[in-house]
Amino acid sequence: EAQVTQNPRYLITVTGKKLTVTCSQNMNHEYMSWYRQDPGLGLRQIYYSMNVEVTDKGDVPEGYKVSRKEKRNFPLILESPSPNQTSLYFCASSPATRGADTQYFGPGTRLTVL
Amino acid sequence: GEDVEQSLFLSVREGDSSVINCTYTDSSSTYLYWYKQEPGAGLQLLTYIFSNMDMKQDQRLTVLLNKKDKHLSLRIADTQTGDSAIYFCAEYSNYQLIWGAGTKLIIKP
Questions:
Q1: Distance (Å, rounded) from C-alpha A93 to C-alpha A107?
Q2: Beta strand extents in A30-114 (DSSP E only)
Q3: What residues of chain A score a pLDDT lower than 50?
Q4: Most A CBs within 10 Å: which of B49, B95, B98, B104, as the mutation test of the A interface?
């Protein structure tokens, strides 16, 4: 089944404890992206990647890192999480390099930073 | 920067039509999208419209695009309880999708 998977789905952590949220897609898509969703703010893009070893900042990259060593994986890293990073995070992928085509979303990761 | 705006809530009676509105700022947008998010789930593409079109119909869904006013709408005919969700409008601008805040559609029996 074609899908985007994220792990973990739920995570509660403490300020400053490094964490990684994994994202994997099995559709051979070039484009991958991370978003955070906050009430009343919609989706805001954190980072995106147009292909392996190519990553770019989105609208809210501060406090986040990403890597794209393989086409299928695009992990999101929070080196020193803070409470303002408590949010719902979505990974998405798209077959179009520029992301203009349909984006397929993962189920979301709900992160709480205490 | 570019911006997309939507009302946060819409309440309709079951069986009526729902019309969700969206305004955007980038007049050079090539694609405009509607995504649906059901409770506890990720987003799914509902439909999209290319900027050289005025209207697109897909079963119960009708998308209208007014480029002059930069206004996009999604009409859902015969709204059912299964249509209860958050609907996001998005425009493609500068290699990114710019998202609205989402409109929560509430269905009254």
A1: 12
A2: 31-38, 42-51, 54-57, 65-66, 76-78, 87-94, 104-105, 109-113
A3: none
A4: B95
d(CA B80, CA A73): 37
CB atoms within 10 A of CB B83: 18
Structure token pair of residue A61 = 């990259």
* Dist. CA B67–CA A20, nearest whole Å: 42
Report chain A residues whose CB lies below 8 A from the CB of B8. Answer: 40
**Structure confidence by residue, pLDDT tens digits, A21-49:** 999 999 999 999 999 999 878 889 999 99
Chain A residues whose beta carbon lies within 8 Å of the beta carbon of residue B4: 42
What are the pLDDT digits (tens) for B67-93? Answer: 999 999 999 999 999 999 999 999 887
Residues 6+ apart with CB under 8 A from B33: B45, B46, B47, B48, B88, B89, B90, B91, B92, B97
Q: How far apart are CA A30 and CA A68, in angstroms?
A: 10
